[in-house]
Amino acid sequence: xxxxxxxxxxxxxxxxxxxxxxxxxxxxxxxANDTLVHPPPASRSSVGDTLxxxxxxxxxxxxxxxxxxxxxxxxxxxKVPSAPQGLKAVIxxxxxxxxxxxxxAEPRGDILTYSVFHxxxxxQRERVVNTTGSRLEEVNVPGLTPDRxxxxxxxxxxxxxxxxxxxxxxxxxxxxxxxxxxPVGLRAVGTSPTSLLVQWExxxxxxxxxxxxxxxxxxxxxxxxxHVVTAERQYELKDLSKFTEYSLWVVAFNQNGPGxxxxxxxxxxxxxxxxxxxxxxxxxxxxxxxxxxxxxxPPKSGQNGVITGYKLRYLQA
Length: 317
What we know:
Layout: E1 6-14, E2 17-25, E3 85-92, E4 97-102, E5 113-120, E6 127-130, E7 138-141, E8 149-158, E9 161-165, E10 169-172, E11 184-192, E12 195-201, E13 212-219, E14 226-230, E15 234-237, E16 245-254, E17 257-261, E18 265-268, E19 279-285, E20 291-296
Antiparallel strand pairs: 1-2, 3-4, 4-7, 5-6, 5-8, 8-9, 8-10, 11-12, 12-15, 13-14, 13-16, 16-17, 16-18, 19-20
Protein name: (California timema) hypothetical protein
Keywords: Disulfide bond
Pfam family, one: fn3
């Protein structure tokens, strides 16, 4: 329903600071013959490049009239802001970057806030930081990893919603000295339908004794991040979901703090017998000596693997 549209924000805080994420929900009405437009796949870039971010409005329908030629997408709404300009990195540190920019050339109303999106090179998962009224065109992006390349883009919001995205800004954080490098040889193997054994080796450059490791993991496409701490070079994660992929990465700690993270890997728990029965079972008599039995697979959440066959049992009444 259109009344469900709006801006939704979530803020997490601890003694070290806070982080926030935001999403704008727009409810669209589409016709039966409309086609949904999706953005093109991302391409790889080099440090120092300036790229144009393709950020269309949320799933826009292509009109069937002759106003738009086949294959063309309708232009963005003239009511939302144009793209912010002059995106630049004011401060680049080991674990944070301060980004500033100039307002859109065509704000088309009062700018309410900006959303600064960033992702690490090699990842498609974007995080977002929103600005406040006191420093509308500048934001500090914390929680980054030393010696990594990040992609930044900015969108302005007015009362009509999010505007066009700025060009991408590519920034590499500074390397941090006297801290461990990333652990090597990270690997994961399923040991049961609900557990993964994750193993790794010491960093090639530890800059002192490694005191502990922090293993991070996320389920599938979830945005909820979990971690465990261990002094060993392996850890068995338990109580996981059956036949499910998990993203995993490890950070080593020495006396000076956390070092560089490993690259993410993906591990999958083992399959198991289905926990739900087949659905919508029907029986139809086709003759005096035969019947046809039909059914649908169990719900996806209860398949616990790839269904390879069915066994039909029957009993004469």
